[in-house]
Design a protein that fits this description.
This protein is α+β, with helices and mostly antiparallel strands. 38% of the residues lie in helices and 14% in strands. The chain has a single domain (31-197), classed as Alpha-Beta Complex (Lambda Exonuclease, Chain A), CATH 3.90.320. The chain has helices at residues 12-17, 20-25, 34-52, 63-80, 134-147, 177-194, 217-221, 230-233; strands at 85-91, 102-109, 115-121, 154-159, 170-175. Mean pLDDT is 91; it is low at 233-238.
Length: 238
Amino acid sequence: MSAHAPFAPSAAERWMSCPGSFQAELGLSRPTSLYAEEGTTAHAIFTQALLHDVSPYQLTDDSLMAKPLHEAWLAAKQLIAGRRFLVEQRLEPMPGLPDLWGTSDIIVFDRFGHVVMVIDLKFGSGVVVEPNTVQLLIYALLAAQQFGGSPDGITAVIVQPRALHSAGPVRDYHYSVDALNAFLGEIQRRVSAALQLEAPRVSGLWCRFCAAKNICTTRHHNLPQTSSSPFHQGRPSA
């Protein structure tokens, strides 16, 4: 299994909103950036802080990175609240969806071993991420099928210490079991649509990180484009 899934959860907003983007990106490389490298470093420090229960201040001399990571570490510990958890857990594909898997930052279990929470660190400051993002919904679904989900549902949590949000740096959204089951059917339909060779392209905010954005005629014909994801309009309620 390669490092990144063909249907990556982190790119789900794009391939679910624009089914044609999946075929358009095949064979194209996505250049790295200083922001991506910073995020990778931040996640590595955050992981070690949780695994060894030490402050990020003890793991890096970069105070600009250590301060927000320390806040995120404290927030994560409060959310975990002494329960069993896994860090950087590879989540296996579901039956019938072999090209969809991912790695969750933190999975939290109840005393019966059921998944009750998935937590995702977002270190970026430019794009504010909401907790009901499709990425976390997929993590919740994958974690539930691999380990067994709580009968009360799963809470998705974003910890984003460097971005300003009216709700603060820690935001959560709860998904009921019915919502997760409904989403499974939705994602199966979206993956099937994206696998079609002539799948339609739909431009929108999700074009930002698409590897094919500079050669996509649909995007160029529709600039400027500020519409929200059509997936959000039909998302199953929690």
